[in-house]
């Protein structure tokens, strides 16, 4: 039997006091965010969180009243990155729709929280009748640690934290992008470029890895990383448009434009199509463009966007189902659930013309 990892071992590993480690892991104040992140990282590496009852719980959930004043048990939905992860989002909003619909069908309520401060967030963790938490999108490690420390059942949608163990629900990003890339290679595309910031999210990273695997399997593949990856940042297609336009202008002068742009999501792809059209580069006659997610704007634009349909409502529903399973079987193995996505071939992609050269 392996020995239990103690707070003292974590302290010795980091060269700090046991008091500092205890403060960081208990969720109490008096420790900087940077120190807290170091403690969480070290604790995870040493296997501290994998132990049963390893962290101090500030409350006993079993002793809480199960029925709130409204007479309905509820699930806390945490969606803290309010800059773009909102109910109005064509992507995140549909995931929320799936969560709320499934909860309503099962007779449960939903409390949406967009708090990013750990100190303020803890006030939401002890209301009557809260069954568990569903995290939607990117959530900071300190917030997840607080949920984990208390012992509240938790499921994350489209996000995972390597330091905090949790059930997660994703679209099958790697396989879907791999299949899309292989399809474009099959219709003659040899110079392809992935457009997106792979540091933005785990989903973007997995989509890039699927793209890269397909590229590396391509016969005679000799592209360098700078040729098949374009990093762009932002949240709306207007933000991506200018970045892609400047990049395309330089590549056009050098006659090094790719024949296809595979974008990390539809917003980036919409910006890419508009940028290329402003430069007189025809889509798909000169360059094919693909997206990912299948938001409503993807089929309303001209040309309609080839993309991958992510079952957004189903992601929300599956998160609710997994949370209920976790509530019943608290000691069951943690699961990473992948939902299949569908490739939708529309007008923004085409075969490479015979004898076609880079612009």
UniProtKB/TrEMBL annotation:
Residues 211-257 form a coiled coil. This is LacI family transcriptional regulator. InterPro entries: HTH_LacI, LacI/GalR-like_sensor, Lambda_DNA-bd_dom_sf, Peripla_BP_I. Residues 5-61 form the HTH lacI-type domain. Keywords: Coiled coil, DNA-binding, Repressor, Transcription, Transcription regulation. Pfam families: LacI (PF00356), Peripla_BP_3 (PF13377).
């Amino acid at each position: 039997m392996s020995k239990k990892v103690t707070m003292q071992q974590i302290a010795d590993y980091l060269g700090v006091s046991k008091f500092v480690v205890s403060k960081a892991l208990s969720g109490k104040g008096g420790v900087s965010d940077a120190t807290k992140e170091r403690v969480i990282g070290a604790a995870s590496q040493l296997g501290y969180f994998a132990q049963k009852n390893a962290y101090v719980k500030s409350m006993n959930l079993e002793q809480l009243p199960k029925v709130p004043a409204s007479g309905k048990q509820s699930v806390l939905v945490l969606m803290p990155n309010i800059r773009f992860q909102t109910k109005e989002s064509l992507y995140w909003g549909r995931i929320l729709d799936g969560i709320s619909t499934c909860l309503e069908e099962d007779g449960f309520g939903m409390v949406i929280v967009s708090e990013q401060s750990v100190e303020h967030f803890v006030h939401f963790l002890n209301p009557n009748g809260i069954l568990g938490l569903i995290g939607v999108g990117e959530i900071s490690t300190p917030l997840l640690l607080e949920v984990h420390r208390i012992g509240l059942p938790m499921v994350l949608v489209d996000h995972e934290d390597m330091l905090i163990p949790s059930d997660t629900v994703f679209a099958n990003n790697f396989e879907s992008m791999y299949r899309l890339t292989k399809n474009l290679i099959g219709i003659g595309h040899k110079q392809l470029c992935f457009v997106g910031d792979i540091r933005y999210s785990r989903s973007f990273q997995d989509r890039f890895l699927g793209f890269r695997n397909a590229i590396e399997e391509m016969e005679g593949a000799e592209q360098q990383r700078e040729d098949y990856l374009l990093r762009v940042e932002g949240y709306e297609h207007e933000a991506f448009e200018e970045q892609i336009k400047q990049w395309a202008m330089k590549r056009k002068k050098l006659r090094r434009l790719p024949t296809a742009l595979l974008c990390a999501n539809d917003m980036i792809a919409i910006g890419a199509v508009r940028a290329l059209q402003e430069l007189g580069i025809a889509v798909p006659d000169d360059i094919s463009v693909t997206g990912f997610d299948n938001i409503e704007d993807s089929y309303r634009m001209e040309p309609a966007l080839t993309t991958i349909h992510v079952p957004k409502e189903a992601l929300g529903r599956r998160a609710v189902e997994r949370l209920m399973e976790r509530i019943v079987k608290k000691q069951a193995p943690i699961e990473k659930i992948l939902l299949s996505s569908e490739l939708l071939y529309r007008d923004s992609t085409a075969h490479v013309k015979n004898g076609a050269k880079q612009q």
